[in-house]
Structure formats: structure tokens, C-alpha cells
């Protein structure tokens, strides 16, 4: 499609409706651009399946996540038994095998989806809120406030994210909540920077001057005029950061700093069975695969959103400094 | 140029101070009394009183920070709780392993990632391009510890009995001895001297050491042991480098001067390799520098899985043993190293692209 033919309909709309060109058209164009990208669709589809799995976990999982199957004729760390693939019919079916505590691995992996999604979303929401507020303050007020906030952010960015999270949790004590807190803290600077840059870029424009002249309060200017302009980079960054938050949380759990037994969290499940990788590889394979697919879906979605919402953004790989 | 370097050096001082402040604050975050946390069962009231006096814990907090800064500048990170030895010694002993692993992983990532990115950009939207990008997307999404375990399973168990078999853990096959090069050359060095420590540090780089001593059997064995961890650790930077090379090259290829070069009849391959690539590699240099931070945190996971006695594994053991001084020192060391790597990247960037200096 040539440039002119792409522009033409919108010019026509402007002519017909005068200056009432609705902002919604931005989202409509974005949606169209998003739907054109195959990888973005795949990401969205994977994420939908994952969310459904998490929501309907009790219906999908044949057992409770922490239920030990001592009544069944199954052995500890038994490999997967799938009837369709030739496992004897009289043997109970376990899609992903049995774990070291005689629990159904498939059920645990299904329930694990809940933890991963909750981990990803809570850390990122926490970091977005704090980061946005800090970035907005720094950008809007400028001066020494800006200097102090941004220097603190620089210092936090000087640490590799996972490492700082490890150090924080190692010191304040292991546990899922502490791990989430640490991951949120190390992701704040990214949002603060993005928000500050957006604020700076629109602060001096005429429409802000106009709202000021009309007597709008600073908070109104910030929330009504500036924040919507910063939404697109925040959404893109947020999606990609959910991916790294999930990876980092899994790494913390793997090191024994995150989820504690008997939580069906993927990183922790993998970590408890890592010494059995040569005898029962399925216990390591499936939880890890689940982590990978989840992270992949957020990465694909984030890339797609970036291309859809801001085609001028440089195509950068996500997550430099990730483990 | 010199002015730019000086300016960059000066601007990293506040960040370095901030890093010190963070690692100092980490030690204050330890729940409960630092004395009981650090000395454990040995902490009787008398011992604690002496401990507080020795570490300046009875002084105001800003004086304590000053003491901490002084100790760090002297290279004194305190004693490890578990080993009752200076932390600095433990880190120095274990550093060569980690550097060897990280650098070889970075090397692998660069020699595979950059050509893959170039190929992808040259054959834009072809099957090879799609495959590379799908691979890169999967690469950045994999937990490094999972990939490591799966690779170990594949190379050590599935390929058992084939020539492609690779050992799943350790640094050297039992029975093989890596004679330090200074002994090989018959140098007489006093055990406690600084030069001995330096030589010992260098001889702990097994690849370097086995080349110096011309021990090819050991060299081959060391490399075979390093391959699987190296593959695991390099996957993420490799994927990031490939993506960056591709997108940066595609962007440069759309510029006017490329079209001009093509128009005057320069062959396409030459335009890409000579005109476009030089400019396209600039952001890739930055990404390579940044990925070092990921490599170091990845080393914690990789060394733990593969039983390699590097600083990463020391950190893992310190976490389990609640050996706070090691955690504190390791975090500080990596952050400072990371700042310096970025400084070097910035400076090399200004060398490669003169426009940067003028900002």
C-alpha cells in the first residue's frame, strides 16, 4: 500500500467532519496494524489460553495441586502416562507424570499458571504506579526534584536487575511476597524514565499552555493532558516487563528465594527436581516449558503492541540485562 | 576526545557513590541485630559488644557509611561468615572461572548473533529471516536454568556413546591436572607475595593456562566442559544481538546514502558489508555491553546448575548459608563492573561515532 492511499481516507474524514477527528482513530489504526502481525496474534492467542487455564484451573486439573496420590498404583517420579500414546489402559493417566512427592505434575503445572500471571501483573502494576508517579514528578517539577529522583533511578539501573533482586530478597528474607517486592523495585526506574521523557516532550506544547491559561490545576494537567500521551510507551514497556518479571521471579524461586513449598510455582517446581534431571527429565521439562511459553506470549504481544502503537520506535530487543 | 572521557568519568562518580549507598543499606536491611545475623550462635553479649566496636556499629550512621567506604576502597569486604576468610580472597580465587565462562559465552553470542542478524536483514522476510527471528524470540523467553538443565540432559545423556557427548558438570575431568604455568616454567615465587597471587589468579584461567603450558589434552577437556554452560549462558545475549543487528541494519539500509551507493553501481553485498554494517553495528556495541550484566546474573544460575566453582556459585551458596558479607561484596563488585563496562562502551561509541561527543 502506498503512502498516499493510506493517508487518503483520513484526510477525507477530516474534510467531512472538520476538526472533530476523533482520538479513537488512533486506537483503530493501532488495532488494524496489530491484527496484521502474525506474531502478535500468536502471542495474544497463547496468552488467552494461558489466562483461561489459570481461571479454570480447578476444572482443567484432574487433581488438587498439593494432593498426594498414595491411593493410586503410581510410583514417585513416574514418567508421563498417556493412554492415547500407548500407555496401558489399566494404569491411571498422568499427562506430565508424577513428581517427587507423588503428586500429579500436570495439575501442578496448570495451577502454576495462576501464580505466574499474578506475579507478572502485580509486580508490573506496582512498578508502573510508582514509576509513573516518580517520573511525572521529576519531569513536571524539574529542578532539584528531577535531579534527586533521576539520580536514584540511575543508581538502581546500575545494578543488573536480577542481581539486585537477589540481593534484596537474600537480605530481607526469602518468600514470594518479598520476591515480588524486589522485582517491582528493580523495574521502577524503567517506567520513571519513560514517563519523565513523555512529560518533558509535551510539557512545553501549546495545548498544555492552553490548559494552564484556562486555569487547570497541575494535577489535572498531569492526569488529563499529559498521562494519555504517555500511555503507549507505558503499555508496550509494561507488556515486555511482565515477561521479564515472570522470568526473574522464576529465577528467584529456582534459587530458593521466591515461592516456598508446597506452592505449585513453576520456578520452584523445577528447582526441587533439578538433581533428578537425568533420571526424571519430565519433572524439569514441563515446568520450564510452561515458563518459556508464558514469557514468549508476553514478548510476542509486547512486540506486536509496539509496532502497532508506535511504528517510529526503534526495534529494540527486550530485556537487555535479563537472566 | 579527552574532555569527553573526563566528563564521562566524572559523571559516573555520583552513580558509584549511590551504588555504595545501596550495598551499605542492604546490610542494614538484615532483619534483627546485625551481630546475631552475622555471627549466629557465637553472638554472646560480650562478643557482640566487641563486634559493634570493631565495625563501628556504635557510631552514628553517616560515620558508619564513611567507614564502609574506606574499607571498600582498601579492598576490605569483611570476612565470610561460613569460611571465616576475607571475602576479597574468596572472590579473587573464584573470579577467573566466572570471567572465563562469561567471556566465552559473550564470544559465542557475538559470533553467532551478528552473522544471523546480518543474514536475516539481507534476506528480509524470507524463510531464513522468519526462522531466525522465531528462534531469537524463543531464545529471549527461555529461563537460563531450564535451558542449562535441558542441554546437560541432551549432551550428557541422550548423546552418550556418540562423539558429541559432553560432560554435564565440573571444570576438568577427574585425574587431569592443570599445572599452573608458573610451576611449568619453573619460576620460583614466594607463596605469600603479591606477584604469586597475581600469577595464581592468571593460572586459574584454565584456557589461558593450558595454552601457556602447551597442555592440549587439558585444553580440550576444559573447552569440552565449558561448552554446555557456555551454550546455555549465551542464548539470551545471542538472541538479543541477532535482533538488534537485524533491526539496526534494516534501518540503515533504508537510508539515502545506501541508495546512492547502489545507484552508482556498487554491488549489494559490498554495500551491506562496507557501507551499512559499520553504522548498523553501533547500537549492537551498546547491547553487547549491556548484556554483560545479564551474563553475570546468568552466571549465578549457570554455575549453580553445572557445579562450577565461580563467584556466581559462591553467591548461591552464600544465599543458602545467609553469608551476608559475600552477598554484599558480590553485588557491589558486579554493579561497579557494570558501570565501568558501560563507561567503556560509551567511550568506544564516541570513538566510533564522533557525533556522540558533541552532545
Polypeptide structure, described:
The complex is a heterodimer of chains A (323) and B (359). By secondary structure, chain A is mainly α. Chain A contains twelve helices and no strands. Chain A is elongated and about 80 Å long. Chain A starts with a helix and ends in a 14-residue tail after the last helix. With 359 residues, chain B is mostly helical. Chain B is globular, with a radius of gyration of 24 Å. The model of chain B has no long low-confidence stretch (mean pLDDT 86).
Q: What proportion of the residues of chain A is helical, as a percent range?
A: 55-70%
- Helical/strand content category of chain A: mainly alpha
**Which stretches of chain A are poorly predicted, pLDDT < 50 over at least 5 residues?**
1-21, 313-323
> Given the structure, what is the number of helices of chain A?
12
Mean pLDDT of chain A, to the nearest integer, reads 83
Rg result of chain B: 24 Å
Order of helices and strands of chain B: HHHHHHHHHHHHHHHH
Which spans of chain B have pLDDT < 50 for at least 5 consecutive residues? Answer: none
Q: Which oligomeric form is depicted?
A: heterodimer
Q: How many β strands of chain A by DSSP?
A: 0
What is the distance, rounded to the nearest whole angstrom, between the alpha carbons of the first and last residues of chain A?
A: 40 Å
Radius of gyration of chain A, Cα only, in angstroms? 24 Å
Amino acid at each position: 500500500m502506498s503512502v498516499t492511499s493510506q493517508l487518503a481516507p483520513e484526510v477525507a474524514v477530516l474534510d467531512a467532519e472538520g476538526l472533530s477527528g476523533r482520538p479513537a482513530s488512533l486506537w483503530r489504526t493501532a488495532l488494524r496494524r496489530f491484527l496484521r502481525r502474525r506474531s502478535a496474534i500468536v502471542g495474544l492467542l497463547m496468552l488467552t489460553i494461558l489466562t483461561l487455564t489459570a481461571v479454570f484451573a480447578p476444572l482443567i486439573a484432574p487433581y488438587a495441586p498439593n494432593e498426594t496420590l498414595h491411593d493410586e498404583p503410581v510410583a514417585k517420579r513416574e514418567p508421563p502416562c498417556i493412554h492415547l500414546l500407548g500407555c496401558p489402559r489399566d494404569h491411571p493417566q498422568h499427562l506430565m507424570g508424577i513428581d517427587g512427592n507423588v503428586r500429579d505434575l500436570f495439575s501442578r503445572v496448570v495451577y502454576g499458571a495462576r501464580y505466574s500471571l499474578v506475579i507478572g501483573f502485580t509486580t508490573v502494576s506496582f512498578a508502573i504506579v510508582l514509576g509513573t508517579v516518580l517520573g511525572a514528578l521529576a519531569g513536571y517539577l524539574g529542578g532539584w526534584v528531577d535531579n534527586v529522583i533521576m539520580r536514584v533511578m540511575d543508581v538502581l539501573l546500575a545494578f543488573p536487575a536480577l542481581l539486585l533482586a537477589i540481593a534484596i530478597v537474600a537480605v530481607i528474607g526469602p518468600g514470594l511476597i518479598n520476591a515480588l517486592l524486589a522485582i517491582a523495585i528493580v523495574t521502577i526506574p524503567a517506567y520513571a524514565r519513560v514517563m519523565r521523557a513523555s512529560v518533558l516532550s509535551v510539557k512545553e506544547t501549546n495545548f498544555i499552555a492552553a490548559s494552564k491559561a484556562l486555569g487547570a490545576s497541575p494535577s489535572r494537567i498531569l492526569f488529563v493532558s499529559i498521562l494519555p500521551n504517555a500511555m503507549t510507551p507505558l503499555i508496550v514497556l509494561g507488556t515486555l516487563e511482565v515477561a521479564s518479571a515472570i522470568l526473574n521471579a522464576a529465577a528467584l524461586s529456582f534459587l530458593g528465594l521466591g515461592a516456598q513449598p508446597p506452592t505449585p510455582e513453576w520456578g520452584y517446581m523445577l528447582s526441587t527436581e533439578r538433581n533428578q534431571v537425568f533420571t526424571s527429565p519430565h519433572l524439569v521439562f514441563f515446568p520450564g516449558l510452561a515458563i518459556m511459553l508464558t514469557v514468549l506470549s508476553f514478548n510476542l504481544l509486547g512486540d506486536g503492541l509496539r509496532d502497532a502503537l508506535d511504528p517510529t520506535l526503534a526495534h529494540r530487543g527486550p530485556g537487555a540485562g535479563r537472566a | 576526545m579527552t574532555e569527553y572521557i573526563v566528563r564521562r568519568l566524572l559523571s559516573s562518580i555520583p552513580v558509584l557513590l549511590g551504588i555504595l549507598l545501596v550495598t551499605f543499606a542492604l546490610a542494614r536491611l538484615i532483619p534483627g541485630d546485625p551481630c546475631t545475623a552475622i555471627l549466629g550462635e557465637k553472638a554472646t553479649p560480650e562478643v557482640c559488644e566487641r563486634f559493634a566496636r570493631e565495625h563501628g556499629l556504635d557510631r552514628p550512621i553517616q560515620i558508619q557509611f564513611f567507614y564502609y567506604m574506606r574499607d571498600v576502597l582498601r579492598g576490605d569486604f569483611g570476612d565470610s561468615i561460613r569460611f571465616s576468610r576475607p571475602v576479597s580472597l574468596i572472590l579473587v580465587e573464584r573470579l577467573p572461572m566466572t570471567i572465563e565462562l562469561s567471556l566465552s559465552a559473550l564470544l559465542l553470542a557475538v559470533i553467532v548473533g551478528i552473522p544471523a542478524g546480518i543474514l536475516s536483514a539481507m534476506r528480509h522476510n524470507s524463510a531464513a529471516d522468519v526462522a531466525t527471528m522465531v528462534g531469537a524470540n524463543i531464545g529471549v523467553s527461555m529461563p537460563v536454568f531450564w535451558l542449562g538443565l535441558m542441554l546437560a540432559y541432551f549432551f550428557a545423556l541422550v548423546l552418550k556413546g556418540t562423539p558429541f557427548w559432553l560432560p554435564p558438570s565440573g571444570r576438568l575431568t577427574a585425574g587431569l591436572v592443570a599445572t599452573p604455568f608458573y610451576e611449568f616454567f619453573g619460576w620460583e615465587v614466594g607463596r605469600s607475595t603479591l606477584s604469586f597471587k597475581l600469577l595464581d589468579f592468571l593460572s586459574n584461567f584454565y584456557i589461558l593456562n593450558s595454552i601457556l603450558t602447551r597442555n592440549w589434552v587439558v585444553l580440550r577437556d576444559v573447552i569440552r566442559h565449558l561448552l554446555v554452560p557456555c551454550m546455555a549462558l549465551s542464548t539470551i545475549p545471542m538472541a538479543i544481538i541477532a535482533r538488534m543487528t537485524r533491526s539496526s541494519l534494516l534501518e540503515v539500509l533504508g537510508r539515502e546514502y545506501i541508495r546512492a551507493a547502489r545507484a552508482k553501481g556498487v554491488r549489494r553485498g559490498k554495500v551491506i558489508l562496507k557501507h551499512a554494517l559499520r553504522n548498523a553495528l553501533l547500537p549492537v556495541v551498546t547491547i553487547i555491553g549491556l548484556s554483560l550484566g545479564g551474563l553475570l546474573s546468568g552466571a549465578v544460575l549457570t554455575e549453580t546448575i553445572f557445579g562450577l566453582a565461580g563467584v556466581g556459585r559462591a553467591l548461591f551458596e552464600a544465599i543458602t548459608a545467609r553469608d551476608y558479607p559475600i552477598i554484599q561484596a558480590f553485588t557491589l563488585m558486579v554493579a561497579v563492573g557494570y558501570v565501568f563496562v558501560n563507561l567503556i562502551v560509551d567511550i568506544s561509541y564516541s570513538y566510533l561515532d564522533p557525533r556522540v561527543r558533541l552532545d
